[in-house]
Specification:
- The chain folds into three domains: 13-137, no CATH class; 143-246, NAD(P)-binding Rossmann-like Domain (Rossmann fold), CATH 3.40.50; 272-463, no CATH class.
- It is flat, with a radius of gyration of 28 Å.
- The longest helix has 36 residues, at 272-307.
- The protein has 468 residues and is of the alpha/beta class.
- The chain contains 14 helices and eleven strands.
- A hairpin with a 2-residue loop joins β6 (254-257) and β7.
- The protein has a five-stranded parallel beta sheet with strand order 3-2-1-4-5, sandwiched between helices. A two-stranded antiparallel ribbon has the order 6-7. Strands 8-9 form a two-stranded antiparallel sheet.
């Protein structure tokens, strides 16, 4: 019978504290909000508070809000908290309408609860971080750690741990059996090489080093096994740091299959609560933009019909999420509606472009009908711009990682467009720069990045650079 070995996540006391603190903040936020007036009996608010805690816990578990936040920026934790509570509050409002109990709650109290609770939750998490850092700086619960392997991965690990003082780790030094001339020079601000693997084992046996990180490359399996065999006679906590940076990682993350850990190499960052938040923002903002643009779009459509023969709109095949074919809406700006394998990009002074079409293209107003694609779920407001099918087939074999841009929905605007790579891509180098921006967007995605790109798009549109 095969012995199955599993890697389990440790039940953290910090996770318990976060759960208790979140529940307290939700109840406290409700209690503070009730001071602004009651519209019904207190029992209804008690039930609402209990349901809020349950819904918040469910969303927080999905959003991995109770993980170990060591080494993760405060910004990401705060944003995750705000998204989680916002979705919880909207769920409660929806339940109140569905059960016909919305009239029994004070609107002032409900809105105050929406604002007060996330302030309390965020404050609790930030204060927790401050306390942890203060304790570490005062020397409480600090532990020595060592890095096995004098290499770039070890240097980066040392920098990351130094930038996370709340972890309470103090570097004892680097250990390696290879001759010093075969190792890169250790930066002066990171420490020094203090000995061999045997020296490390001796110190670990004496309890002088409590945590050890092995940064050998994955191909050095025999060396890693040898170090693990020697360290198995100590009580030190040992970690292997895989050198996944040798791959072109696209928002990698750990997951497991019945306890067997796996790491994603090519993955979309937009899932769980983050995915829900982006979808909701697309629907809300897309509807608002479409409402504001309805009259101008009608005028543009009429102008196109009156100034040139042909339809006001046309649909073109593009690649969407996961490489599935979609058809995007655009205002017709040319005397032709090309959508074949030989579609040619517009160039300066292109004879196919009508005089009105030239204005629409310079101002990007020809893209407005894609708001219909956003509301239909085919596109997002922000994401990699969808290329013509002919371009995809041309460049997917020339540019490494080209198809990875389809791990998220295409957007009306994107990081490439606000970074100077808007317009014609008449060379592989221009397309390569655009793809670099697209993949950077996916790796670094956040709701704040989307907001930033939307604002930057306004200035890009007015500049009319590279638009023809």
């Amino acid at each position: 019978m095969q012995d199955h070995q599993y890697i389990h996540q440790k039940w953290s006391a910090r996770g318990v504290w976060y759960r208790l603190a979140d529940a307290f903040c939700i109840v406290a936020g409700l209690a503070i909000s009730l001071q602004r007036g009651l519209a019904t009996t207190i029992d209804h608010y008690v039930i609402a508070g209990a349901v809020a805690i349950i819904v918040y816990y469910l969303l927080a578990e999905v959003g991995d809000m109770y993980r170990n936040w060591h080494g993760v920026s405060e910004h990401r934790e705060v944003v995750g908290t705000l998204i989680c509570w916002g979705c919880t509050w909207m769920t409660l409002v929806l339940l109140a309408f569905i059960t016909a109990h919305s009239g029994e709650f004070s609107r002032i109290s409900t809105l105050a609860w929406l604002v007060v609770t996330p302030v309390l939750i965020v404050a609790a998490r930030i204060i927790t971080r401050w306390i942890q850092r203060a304790r570490r700086l005062l020397g409480y619960n600090r532990r020595k750690f060592a890095i096995v392997g004098v290499n770039e991965l070890g240097f980066q690990l040392a920098k990351n741990i130094e930038a996370s003082p709340e972890m309470g780790l103090f570097l004892a030094g680097f250990f390696d059996d290879r001759p010093e001339e075969r190792n890169p020079a250790i930066p002066d601000d990171l420490g020094r090489r203090v000995g061999t693997i045997q020296d490390l084992v001796d110190q670990a046996k004496l309890g002088a080093i409590e945590r050890i990180y092995i940064t050998f490359p994955m191909r050095a399996e025999s060396r890693i096994r040898g170090v693990l065999d020697q360290l198995s006679d100590t009580t030190a906590s040992v970690y292997i740091v895989p050198d996944f940076f040798v791959f072109q990682l696209l928002y990698s993350r750990w997951t497991d299959i019945l306890g067997l850990p796996v790491v994603s190499v090519f993955e979309s960052p937009i899932y769980g609560i983050d995915g829900l938040a982006k979808q909701v923002s697309d629907i809300v903002l897309g509807s608002l933009f479409l409402l504001l643009a309805a009259v101008p779009m009608a005028v543009i459509a009429l102008g196109i019909k009156l100034t040139s023969p042909g339809p006001a709109f046309f649909r073109q095949k593009r690649y969407g999420l996961d490489g599935r074919e979609i058809r995007i809406w655009k205002f017709r700006t040319m005397n032709v509606c090309e959508d074949g394998p030989q579609a040619v990009q517009a160039k300066p002074d292109d004879s196919r472009v009508t005089w009105l079409g030239a204005i629409l293209r310079k101002t990007s107003l020809d893209e407005l009908p894609q708001l219909f694609n956003v509301l239909a779920g085919d596109m997002s407001l922000v994401g990699p711009r969808p290329h013509a099918t002919a371009q995809n087939e041309e460049y997917r074999s020339q540019i490494e990682g080209y198809m990875l841009r389809h791990k998220v929905k295409p957007g009306i605007t994107g990081l490439a467009q606000v970074s100077g790579w808007r317009g014609e891509t008449d060379s592989p180098e221009k397309m390569r720069k655009r793809i670099e921006c697209d993949l950077h967007y996916i790796r670094e995605w956040s709701m704040w990045l989307d907001v930033t790109i939307l604002f930057r798009t306004i200035f890009v549109v007015f500049s009319a650079k590279n638009a023809y």
